[in-house]
Amino acid sequence: MNTIRKIYCRTFQKAFKLALPFLPYRNPEVVGSVKALPEILLKKKCDRVLIVTDQGIRNLGLTERLEQALKENGIAYAVYDKTVANPTTVNVKEAEDLWYQEGCKAVIGFGGGSSMDCAKAVAARIAKPHQSLAQMKGILKVHKKLPLLIAIPTTAGTGSETTLAAVITDAGTRHKYAINDFPLIPRYAVLDPKVTLSLPPFITATTGMDALTHAVEAYIGNSTTAGTRKNALDAVKLIFENLDRAYNDGSDKEARKNMLRASYFAGCAFTKSYVGYVHAVAHTLGGQYNVPHGLANAILLPFVLEEYGDVINGKLARLAQAAGVATKETPEKEAAQAFIQAIKDMKKRFGIGDTVSEIREEDIPKLARYADKEGNPLYPVPVLMDAHQLEKFYYLLMDKKQEESSNESE
């Protein structure tokens, strides 16, 4: 990245960090069970609600406890269950139409990050019906009070129940973009381990590593606070203590509960301190090829950490201590390398590879430009990179057989 652009990025990030104490960040109120929601809804005079979820969650019967609780308390509800991974503008429009058809008064995002992002976008459209989602893209463009928004995560990873972001994919162009504003932070987050018990092992792993990525990127960035550093360290500790347990025994309620806490802490950390190039690149893979976000983050994380180099050794060493793979006496560089290796070992245990077979070489310049545009100047990364430098990660992730075939054809 050229010097002038570096100065611009760092100045922008410094200004944002100085503004942090004055911005209206808030954490959602935590609720321990879906059965507690009817009382909240009735207090808020919300007697008709829209549940935004996906077909897989519905087929597993995970919404049944919530639906039963609503019925028993005389609260009508409509269910939109067509949300896809990397939710699209079409999903948002369909769910929004259902809201108006059923006369709903509150939105519940029930599922992984995709369902919660879709629910947030629906709420934003209801608050600003004359503005398109594309017009809300970027920072602080919603600035309107949303209808009551409740998030019920079924995966312990996305942290969407705590964040001010909704990530949406344009159904026509496949461009994935974020809408960031404080009203998008849900009013309530329901951390109910029972809704995560039937999550398959691989999704447990990738969403858990999504939470790990949130915590790590928030911690190594340049806009941390004492609070976000503590949240990130707590999240990393909980993930290393509980993710393998949840992966190996999905019915381990304590491990599931601790992973929900980890995801929540990681979400609180990155909501204020932001993420980095792992996310910027992962979002383009989700938008272009529909690669699940947690999987893309898990694949990318060690590659990006290695590319940052020695500048993050001190911070990675402290993360290594939280993870239990190093002590205070371990030399910084050795501890940093142990932390990166621990992530690689985790990927191997969970059957997460190092490639994304869908990547096409001809797409790389465009994807790198999208990642550059998302990451710069907003993300306070430890080392700045431009589109040309970000291309490296796509080539690293390309299926080697495909790369060889491409070279042979030239």
Could you walk me through the main structural features you see in this protein, from its secondary elements to its overall organization?
The chain has 410 residues and is of the alpha/beta class. Helix 8 (201-220) packs parallel to helix 10, helix 9 runs antiparallel to helix 10 (253-273) and helix 9 packs across helix 13. It contains 17 helices and nine strands.
Short description:
With 410 residues, the protein is of the alpha/beta class.
What best-fitting shape do the alpha-carbon axes yield?
globular
Helix content: 55-70%
Strand order of the biggest β-sheet: 1-9-6-4-2-3
Largest sheet: number of strands, sense, barrel closure = 6 strands, parallel
**What order do the SSEs take from the amino end to the carboxyl end, as H and E?**
HEHEHHEHEHHEEEEEHHHHHHHHHH
Strand content: 5-15%
Radius of gyration: 21 Å
On the 0 to 100 scale, the average pLDDT is: 94
Unreliable stretches (pLDDT < 50, length at least 5) are none
Structural category is alpha/beta
Helix run count: 17
Number of distinct beta strands: 9
